[in-house]
Write a structure and sequence with these properties.
By secondary structure, the chain is α+β, with helices and mostly antiparallel strands. Helices cover 52% and strands 13% of the residues.
């Protein structure tokens, strides 16, 4: 399976996931982050063991798209995430990712927004 097809498959799996899981987060990590320092990989493993899903999603995002940041909004229903260039202040920049809404919480919204941005070549 080529990289684009793998990302598209992961986008669908994340979109369909009712809740975060270690297996899904690990697959996203390996598909998006490339080679990382052992301390960073260890930190990611600790976060997953602790089920600190939002922190694991943020670490994945920081490694996969280091020049970007994420804006989130959580509510009782679905949570939203949107990827933005790191240097952006105010408004919606041209390079921003789409807003992703996920009923499974903030962590899954972040992961899905990250995958969409990667699939779009960001």
């Amino acid at each position: 399976m080529d990289h684009e097809a793998r990302l598209n498959s992961l986008i669908k799996r994340v979109a369909d996931a009712p809740a975060p899981s270690r297996e899904l987060f690990a697959e996203v990590w390996f598909a998006t982050t490339g080679k990382q320092h052992p301390d960073i990989k260890g930190r990611f493993a600790v976060l997953m063991d602790a089920k600190a899903w939002t922190e694991a999603a943020l670490l994945t995002m920081a490694c996969a798209l280091p020049d970007w940041r994420v804006v989130t909004e959580a509510s009782r229903g679905a949570s939203e995430a949107r990827m933005l260039p790191l240097d952006h202040v105010g408004g919606v920049p041209e390079r921003s990712g789409d807003t992703v809404r996920h009923p499974g919480g903030t962590a899954l919204a972040i992961i899905q927004a990250l995958l969409v941005a990667k699939a779009d070549g960001r």
